[in-house]
Amino acid sequence: MPAFTRDVAIIGAGLSGLTAATELRKAGVSVVVVEARDRVGGRTWTGDIDGAMIEIGGQWLSPHHTAALDLVKELGLETFSRHRIGESIYLAADGERHLFTGDVFPAPAATTKEIQRLLTLLDTLAAEVGADQPWAHPRAAELDAVPFPLWLARESDDEYARETVAFYVSGAMLTKPAHTLSTLQALHMAAAQGSYTNLATDTFMLDKRVVGGMQQVSQRLAASLGDDVVLNAPVRRMEWSDEGVTVIADGDLEVRADQAILAIPPTLYPSISFAPPLPRLRNQMYQHMSFGFVVKIHAVYDKPFWRAKGLSGTGFSDTDLLSEIYDNTNYDADNGALVGFIVNEQADAYFAMDADARKEAALASFVRYLGPEAANPTVFYESDWGAEEFTGGAYGVSFDFGGLTRYGASLRTPLGPIHFACSDLAGQGFQHIDGAVRMGRRAAEEIVERRKASVL
């Protein structure tokens, strides 16, 4: 039976786990990282699909993602900006195609003004709620009990403005129908990205990519850890007490450690048998957290034909199959690439089709945005994270109504020797690569401080 004895056992070789391991190593703490998959990177995954480099998972960084940007630079990697030159496209509910520039969808002047008013109001509330402890806000329980669309309806009688504002958080970020999200959850998402206006600003969000692919960040961290990263080892059992932990994984792997970090989505904790069982409150909390559902559609072409038409490759729709599309051409590539997203109930309907019908429907949506040339890609690929056994959805986990106020204070609190780290638990950078890095560093700091205190 392979066995390790280390100071810290880390479950999950995504960005949180590998960041934590790297920081602990720097502090002289011995680690082993146990990963269920045959690769590192978690929800970042750069694949070769029919000869094309595809970002199957998370890929973008924005200006406020300073922790992740600093790490990328530290690892010697470079970034490049998303192509935004040209007009963007909005597909209206009536099927009409509108060209526009800037960050605000085409709308009558009164509606545009109302959208800005709502964004200003939400920015103020998001700043009050904050990213780190939204459950501590005096109105937290009230805001956590009100569906976001209902809150918007109380604030505005402009339906288009309400739907547009709701889209930024429900369709573009949390990937759940807006009526399933509390107002507090929406405000937390906004606060975690700096403001609600940031979420609504195309020239701010989804800003930069890593040259050569985002998974390289994890791969370089893992390379520095060497044999202390173990793949193909799903963890099945964790025995824990004040004396330490014993982690048991497939392949007869056993790890004994003083402390552990669970660096996997909290929805996966129930797949591990804990002895003794996790406390009742923790089990309840994880039952009230769930992933959204989004399909990421990739289409690669001989050239970025949309650019010759004066189009940026960016498009949005509240009603079409692909709710967002972007130019996703790789750095210095000769070809062109698009990425589009299908979310919520649209994603449910999409996977009710067979593979040929899905491809036809997705490409038809690209055509409605960009014209007939979009119908014939050289490579077509679906990123379906809902089918990933060791993830279970995308982009991240959020609470149902009331969950954030009921359980939020316990989200990141260590449980005996067990610490918790992943982007789903983050304050700043929540559900983003930046949040994963921040949570990995936070868990490492907790452990280093605890070890210092134990010798005093």
From TrEMBL:
One of its GO terms (molecular function) is oxidoreductase activity. Gene3D superfamilies: FAD/NAD(P)-binding domain (3.50.50.60). InterPro entries: Amino_oxidase, FAD/NAD-bd_sf, Flavin_amine_oxidase, Flavin_MAO. Residues 15-447 form the Amine oxidase domain. The keyword Oxidoreductase applies. Keywords: Oxidoreductase. The keyword Lyase does not apply. Substrate binds at residue 341. Its cofactor is FAD. FAD binds at residues 16, 35-36, 235. Belongs to the flavin monoamine oxidase family. This is Putrescine oxidase.
